[in-house]
Design brief:
Rossmann fold, binds 5-amino-5-deoxy-1-O-phosphono-D-mannitol, Glutamine Phosphoribosylpyrophosphate, subunit 1, domain 1, alpha/beta, six-stranded antiparallel beta sheet, 614 residues, 22% strand, globular, 3 domains, eight-stranded antiparallel beta sheet
Length: 614
């Protein structure tokens, strides 16, 4: 999620590093920092854009001149607000080691307590800072070690994901890097090397790169690099030649950010669950609400407020919380809630959901709920956003920056958070330990199942091509999949400008059925659950009026293919996790229909990523 850049060679490092950070800036980071080695270690960091950091460096004059090695970072906050102090690099107490990190250290709190008990003082709220103190502790306990060995030993204590770069003024002619879960690329120049979290900052300097694999470390000097495993076994690495344009690299090789973000979902889903889903223990660990869980469980009612896609996630949340925790839930459009004099009291818990954390209506709903005495909890993607700050407690979705205006990975991340919340609220009350384990296992299997759905991208594009000239479309689903029908319709309309509506399938006969003719595509979610046979009847109703049926069905189903013109098969899963699967074909269909119509999917007309006005 964070951006990493490193340089070691014979040129001035600071301008190269800043330029590299700018190449990563398209992802929308919240703070930046740099460390260079020119005799001493010099570290500068700043909240905000890379421009802010650059301004600071200009003000600081020529302090960085002469440095030909260094590391730099753009941060997407996960632990601790965006601020100067939480920006990377982080340093050890004596200021001779600097470290940047991309990923999440899952056991940081145990490591931190341990280090504090040994006298270490922390200067940030990040999980990353433990890494530098850990290296420091190991190095101090055995000064005969090299930096590389100290890093290696430190990493043995770390659980979670990391891409790290470490420099030290004690060994100023090297950069030590390591990777587990978070990408790292080494660019090979002429007597110089570049390091980055993706190829974007490297490609203007060299097209020769080495991709580190998980569990590998590299030591990079001005003349050479060696790659070993974290267990110290030397590795032969293949040098890859990049043949991408810079723009393509920023989008990870995808045509659009939206497509990239759709494809990122399996990984994002794992990140959302990382360290939180404990299947064997039959529980979820939700740090952000732990202290408030008892109060949450005692709520007489939960009210969920949000807008757009986040509101659809809220509807799924309603089904999940009522199904498992048996607490009554109401879901309101934040824009309606704020003006309708809602009945809310201190017995209620209000959950606001927002990717950006800045949506004006959601923020107003939050403030009103607080005024009325409700406990307000947030589910946000952007750490330190206004909504995250103003809620009493909450959970981050950890989906990473979402650049495409149409929300995709943020939605599935929100649903996973709501699923985990439903489990936390049920534990010890409404469902057994074994049921929780079963549900968590189902949830943990979702990322792999989503990957299997994504493999059908080409086939889905073929279907999209058939419907690209539609004027209208109907999306129908039931139960947990009803909100997915709404989300499918929203995705299509916002990026392709085709009029689309979502309905609970049974509502069709109360009105929308009048719209059906041979030009109307009707997208059904017809997976095997307790409403399956009812959905089949709804499909028959559409067919007999000559509507064109495209269905999402469970693998192995034979009935649906008899009725539908096109079927997209998805892996079977339990009803409560199904929305995480059924939404994916709809995202892809909307994406392909829109691109085939020549629409700008990443920046659809009239829409903003973050709606900060009423
Ligand atoms: O940042 P938020 O989640 O609060 O944004 C809410 C809506 O504006 C947002 O979901 C919008 O509907 C998206 N364009 C949907 O793709």
């Amino acid at each position: 999620m964070c951006g990493i850049v490193g340089y070691i060679g014979r040129r001035e490092a600071a301008p190269l590093l800043l330029n590299g950070l700018k190449r990563l800036e398209y992802r929308g980071y919240d703070s930046a920092g740099i460390a260079v080695l020119n005799g001493d270690m010099q570290v500068f960091k700043r909240k905000g854009s890379v421009g802010n950091l650059e301004e600071m460096l200009n003000v600081s004059g020529t302090v960085m001149l002469g440095a030909t090695a260094g590391i730099a970072h753009t941060r997407w906050a996960t632990h601790g607000d965006p601020s100067d102090r939480n920006a990377h690099p982080h340093m050890n107490v004596t200021g001779d080691i600097a470290l940047i990190h991309n990923g999440i250290v899952e056991n940081y709190s145990t490591l931190k307590q341990d280090l504090i008990s040994q006298g270490y003082v922390f200067n940030s709220d990040t999980d990353s800072e433990v890494l530098v103190h850990l290296i420091d502790r190991i190095w101090k306990s055995d000064p005969s070690l090299e930096l590389e060995a100290a890093v290696r030993q430190a990493l043995r204590h770390v659980e979670g994901a990391y891409g790290i770069c470490v420099v030290s003024s004690r060994e100023p002619d090297k950069i030590v890097v390591a990777r587990k879960g978070s990408p790292l690329v080494i660019g090979i120049g002429n007597n110089e090397f570049f390091i980055a979290s993706d190829a974007a900052p490297i490609v203007e300097h060299t097209n020769k790169v080495v991709y580190l694999s998980d569990g590998e470390m590299a030591v990079i000097t001005r003349d050479n690099y060696t790659v070993k495993t974290i267990e110290n076994v030397e590795q032969e690495k293949r040098v890859t030649e990049l043949d991408f344009s810079l723009e393509k690299i920023e989008k990870g090789g995808y045509e659009h950010f939206m497509l990239k973000e759709i494809f990122e979902q399996p990984e994002v889903m794992r990140d959302v669950m990382r360290g939180r889903v404990r299947i064997d223990e039959g529980r979820v660990q939700l740090g952000g609400i732990e202290d408030y869980l008892d109060r949450l469980k005692q709520a007489k009612r939960v009210v969920i407020c949000a807008c757009g896609t986040s509101w659809h996630a809220g509807l799924i949340g309603e089904y999940l919380i009522e199904e498992f925790a048996r607490i009554p839930v109401e879901v309101d459009y934040a824009s309606e809630f704020r003006y309708r004099n809602p009945i809310v009291s201190s017995d209620d818990v209000v959950i606001v959901i927002s990717q950006s954390g800045e949506t004006a209506d959601t923020l107003a709903a939050l403030r009103l709920a607080k005024e009325k005495g409700a406990m307000v909890m947030g589910i946000c993607n952007v750490v330190g956003s206004t909504i995250a700050r103003e809620t009493l407690c909450g959970m981050y979705t950890h989906a990473g920056p979402e650049v495409g205006v149409a929300s995709t990975k943020a939605f599935t991340a929100q649903v996973i958070v709501l699923f985990m919340l439903a489990m936390a609220l049920s534990k010890g009350r409404t469902i057994s330990h074994d049921e929780i384990r079963l549900n968590l296992r189902e949830l943990a299997e979702v990322p792999d199942k989503v990957s299997r759905i994504l493999e059908q991208n080409d086939a889905i594009k073929v279907i999209a091509n058939e419907f690209k000239d539609a004027k209208n479309a109907l999306y129908l689903g039931r139960g947990f999949n009803f909100p997915v029908a709404l989300e499918g319709a929203l995705k299509l309309k916002e990026i392709s400008y085709i009029h689309a509506e979502g309905y609970p399938a049974a509502e069709m006969k109360h009105g929308p059925i009048a719209l059906i003719d041979e030009d109307m595509p009707v997208f059904f979610i017809a997976t095997r659950d307790n409403t399956y046979t009812k959905i089949l009847s709804n499909i028959e109703e559409v067919r007999s009026r000559k509507g064109r049926v495209i269905a999402i069905a469970s693998e192995g189903d034979r009935e649906v293919s008899r009725l539908a013109e096109h079927v997209i098969y998805i892996p079977q899963a339990s009803g409560p996790v199904m929305p995480l699967l059924t939404v994916v074909p709809f995202q892809l269909l909307a994406y392909h229909i829109a691109t085939l119509r020549g629409c700008n999917v990443d920046r659809p007309r009239n829409l903003a990523k973050s709606v900060t006005v009423e």
